[in-house]
Please model this.
Amino acid sequence: MLTRIRTPCAVPAQRRHRNRTSGPEGPLRPSRGRPQIGAVAESAEAPAAPLPLPRAPERIVELGSPVFGAWAGSVPDARFDGLNEEYPRGTVARRLVEKRWVYVLVPTREVMLAMALVDAGYLSSGFCAVLDRGSGKLLFDSSPVLPPLCARVSDVPGDGLSARLAGPRIKARIERSGGRILVEARWMSAAVDVVLDARKAPPPLSVCSRIDTGRFNFTQKLTAVPAEGEIRAGNARFAVQGDLAGMDFTHGFPARETRWRWAFGSGKAMGRTVAFNLSEGFLPGSPESAVWVDGPPCGAGPVHFEGDFSDRDAPWHIRSADGGLDLVFTPEGRRAQNIDLKLVASRYVQPFGTFRGHLTAASGERIEVEGLPGVTEEHSARW
Model:
């Protein structure tokens, strides 16, 4: 059958979603030894402008210990080499607890692509999903669990990044060189050929956080990255033409049981390039929560997620304590997974959709957001 190029078009306006804005917080239990996800304290004061973040350090390990903090920009040397005896050492010990992944989101006006390559040490996994934004249906969705060594993710988030996944009818890679990020996959009936140009993106958010004794996590979030290329699902082809993509690189020794909620979006608002990465529950104090407005990331502080997360059509409400950030996420469709292998388990929902509401720039300016594409996620893992 002949394939066709489908040029970008607006999402049909007749699609409706139920208008509930709150509900139970879902059946997942809080992680052992981790702060329970709960409401942030309300503030009667006027919203404060988000604080600019300091410049990233040269390396993530100094004198045997991680350098903790949240920064604007990339950490040139993000290797975990030279950690002291508090942290897992040796091939076997590290393979049991060390996790690395690279996640890419490419939203266009027709579809949204989400792809992740995951090296969990004792197993490999990943997913590739393509959502038709007009119908809310997944044109493609695959999330295999594979033996160890099927996935390889480097410890370099900048130039030199290399992530690969290979399995039955799966060959995928994400590589970065000269500021350009190649996202390429032949994944059953789907194919991805997209290039992200990080040279034209704002500085990333880099965060290194202590979790518990011997456990810490490093992540780099790249937002508003212009993308070009093509996404294919079956016989349908979709052009990627300057759409603003995002990438999440994570490497760490997470807690045995981990639970989080996450929101990510980037695009244009009020003529500005706007992005945000918001999380609750994964790390103490929400250091990964940040906003970008025409420039480097600024810390957003703790945020709280509300909604009936078990309802695929229900909105999510995300807000900060002082009201400087208040967003409603409306799902267009979602992907989900529920794997329980007893020793290892993963349960999550990841809706695709749009955000509306407001956030605050570093200047104190209130930025109104409407129809900004992105994703949210509720995830509970035992790993």
